[in-house]
Amino acid sequence: MPSRQPAFTHQQSTKHRATFIFVIITVFSSVLILFGVIYLIYYVWYSLIHRTRTSPLDSCPVFLKLRRYTYKELNSATNGFSDDNFIGKGGSGTVYRGILRNGKLVAVKLLDSDSLDAERDFQNELRILGGLESKFVVSLLGYCVDKRKRLVVYEYMPNRSLQDWLFSDRGLNWKRRFEIIVDVSRALEFLHSCDPPVIHGDVKPSNVLLDAEFRAKLSDFGLSRLKIEPEFGVDLFSQDLSGTLAGDGAGESSAIGTPVGSSHANEVDFSLALQASSSSTPVNSKAVCNHLGLGFVNEKGKNLSVGNIENCGADGADDSINNKFTNYDGDLDHNFDNNHITESNSNPDHKTSKKQWGKDWWWKQEGSGELSTRDYVREWVGSQICPSANPDWEDDQISEKKPHRKMQEWWKEENLDDLAKTKVEKKIKRRFKLKIYKRKRNRSEFSFQKNSKNNAETMNTGDVFSRELSSTTSMRGTLCYVAPEYGGYGGCEYLIEKTDVYSFGVLILVIVSGRRPLHVLASPMKLEKANLISWCRQLAHGGDLLELVDERLKDDYDKSQASLCVNLALACLQKMPELRPDVGDVVKILKGEMELPVVPFEFSQSPPSKLVGRSRSRRKNKTLPIDGHYTRSRV
Ligand SMILES: Nc1ncnc2c1ncn2[C@@H]1O[C@H](COP(=O)(O)OP(=O)(O)OP(=O)(O)O)[C@@H](O)[C@H]1O
């Protein structure tokens, strides 16, 4: 009997062990299955979320070429976007200096997340600048998308922007100024000779960056466009902005362009960028362009060129340039909408009912009429920016001009239809209206409240005001730099190469003079110099072109180069885009390989003499323009 006990115990312990192992295995496999299920759920969830968040960009192949940084990387590169690394603030974001893990110095632009413009700038910058490679264009190194945050990484330009130098006490010597002018012209030459051509759309000093040797590179392609079908007026440009708000893929549209080769040492590759583009050009613009006499071909193949000014109801336009100018300046009506144009074209009596051209952009820009300093600025700005920036002002000053398109409404008109198609139509519309409202409020710094002491002071002292004005980017470029056919009321929505040429003309004058294009000073006596372009035209008329040269240079500059630059600027600033030189010719002229073409003289009336007094030269020895381009009488 006693010999049976151990056998029973052994059996029992074996059974216990088996049960224990079974329990362990069951628990372990249950945990494993549970983890597996959790992982599967997480994986499905993650890939769904990740796909919706990245597909708009990842589906655009140009983005694949660029490095995608994580927010964490850029955050540590800029030391948490610290003030010490702050470089500058622009219209759409803030720029910081950063050092990547490999030691490379970069500039990181953190775009304002609540701005519609920022999304547009981001998409444009990556699609267009991402496909460009030139020593005259700043390099885009990569980007970051993190939830609503958008960041762009550029090569670092140690001497920052031309604006930082030009309008500071440091100034720039003549040699550097001239080299910068040449560099920018070569940048534009490169852009315009790309296939398809790139129109920069926002040439101004803060978008010209300077490297360690002060060689210039063009930056900020937020407003730029690809010119896709030059033969057809309606579909000149392609830019896909739709879907970015609603979150659909910008890259879903079909391919339009062809791969590019470039004869330059520079390279460009738009085949990828173009895949992300789609045509979205408003039809109204055609009539407006027609009205302005811009040459383009309509759907029926008829060339609607300069001569069509006659068809728009302008008086007696004939082949002479003089008459074209007269009509362009004197008779065109900007208070129109599309129907109105059609009517005016067919109805000769309409001429009599037109409002005066004298109330439009050019008149303001050139400063004719009986205006005080305050009125001058007020009127001029009123012609340039949205009247609704200030409700008081709109009621007070501009109520009769209701038919005008408002610049700030532009985006709304362009995109609201697309937005309306989405499921969250009402929500987006409400959000959009709120943003428009906020933007209007932000821009109210340019408005002039009646009885507002501060604003009146700002206007009369001028400098802060001038600075803000000439760096205000709208949907169509920057005030004072934007060409009349593009930026003013009734301007076309088409950017053309000559629009860049116009802005380049303003830039030349700004570089030569070291002044902002609109520089309002305290003394009314100086009003004649407030508008750089009109002042330059007056000087040209009087043969005092070199009076425009920055006083800080004293006599330490090349007079023939300076004279060439100012004359070239005047050629670029011609109102008729067709009469402005091509940028290729501009480069040749600057290099001395081509003569400056004879251009018709566009004379600007002086500001009211009783306000500004007589023009007084600040230089004792007036220097006549070396080539005498502007000494001839008006053609
Ligand atoms: N790559 C860069 N390297 C060095 N500094 C830069 C670089 N990019 C921009 N900056 C500086 O940051 C400033 C702000 O640039 P940003 O492009 O945001 O705006 P902006 O051109 O001044 O104005 P806007 O956005 O209205 O055109 C510039 O004026 C320039 O001084």
TrEMBL record:
Protein name, UniProt field: Uncharacterized protein
